[in-house]
Amino acid sequence: MFKKIELEKNNNFQLESLEVGLTSQCNFHCEYCCAYHKNDKAVLTGDQVIEIIRQIPTLKRLKLSGGEVLLYFADCLKIIAYCAEKGIKTQINSNGSLLDQEQLGLLRQNGLDTLHISLNFTNAQEHDAYYKMGLSVFAKIIDNITEGVRQNLNLMVETILFETTEKRITELYNYIYALGVRHMELQYGISIDHSGWNKTIFKEKVNLMITEIINCKKPDSLVYFSCLDLADYPTFREQEEELKKQGIFFPRCIEGKKQLHLHSNGDILICELGYPVVLDNLFANPGAFVDIYSNKMPEKLTDFISQHPCRKNAW
Ligand SMILES: C[S@@+](CC[C@H](N)C(=O)[O-])C[C@H]1O[C@@H](n2cnc3c(N)ncnc32)[C@H](O)[C@@H]1O
Ligand code: SF4
């Protein structure tokens, strides 16, 4: 699981992990969506991504995210097979609605390391009322999660901590556990400047949600809370080592230090979700990934690393 990497303490800045926004296109229209340049129709092909990866000898992990990258299944498969051959770990982030049994098998056979599916509801009616995607879409996502578990894929389900999930976090945990999923990511809902979405929740409520999870969590599952700085949660900071033993983790942010985001138009961002600041453009400057971590590291990146301005969103 990629999340384990973020538990390591390391201040050695080098590009080990790349998140590729193959496309911003999507079959969903989530109001909270953080995707950069959402209306951009550009798509990176599998061959283009492979060529980019070839130029990054330090790369250990590749995450395909978007948009909904499984709109371009054949390209994803090609990239995964190439990475598996080169020993680069891969993850796909998906809304889980476009897969089927055969495709899940192909992802596994071609060496996908982690399939990461988003889920914020426990029944078709509420899912449809929120996303307006039709009642059958929820069943499709659940079928794919169940089938992924059956096929022994490394499956992580991600839930956003925000106004909508606040009242049902225990219910969501139990539901996801009952599907057979043993890895859950709880991602703090980040306000999105470019869309104006701001249904985030404040520290007190996050505290309550963490407490609920501690109380309901089963011993054989692992839970990762993302984008929460424990400095803001002293009670849990004191308990961090104990919580780790219980399988509850607060991973450190690796954005900008080990990981960058590449958008399909060539823009290289520090973090698409929390800090979508453009450092360079790979098509305008093919040496950008080398330049960013050279002596002349861009000021935007050194500022980010020293100040973590995205944390202003955290409460
Ligand atoms: C942009 S989506 C792309 C992958 C895929 N389409 C999906 O929804 O899973 C990547 C992840 O970011 C999460 N996400 C989107 N907007 C967010 C926000 N404002 N705050 C926190 N997480 C967000 C989604 O729930 C999803 O798990
Ligand atoms: S499914 Fe993912 S990419 Fe699509 S709109 Fe929702 S969050 Fe954005």
Description of the structure:
Strands 8-7-6-5-4-3-2-1-9-10-11 form an eleven-stranded mixed beta sheet. The radius of gyration is 19 Å and the shape is globular. The mean pLDDT is 93. Helix 1 links the parallel strand 1 (17-21) and strand 2 (61-65). It has helices spanning 46-54, 73-86, 101-109, 124-131, 135-150, 169-178, 203-216, 234-238, 240-245, 288-292, 299-307; strands at 17-21, 61-65, 89-94, 114-118, 155-161, 183-188, 222-226, 248-249, 259-263, 267-271, 275-281. It is an alpha/beta fold. It is built from eleven helices and eleven strands. Iron/sulfur cluster (SF4) binds next to loops.
Q: What are the main properties of this structure?
A:
TIM Barrel; binds S-adenosylmethionine; binds iron/sulfur cluster; 315 residues; alpha/beta; 11-stranded mixed sheet; 11 strands; globular
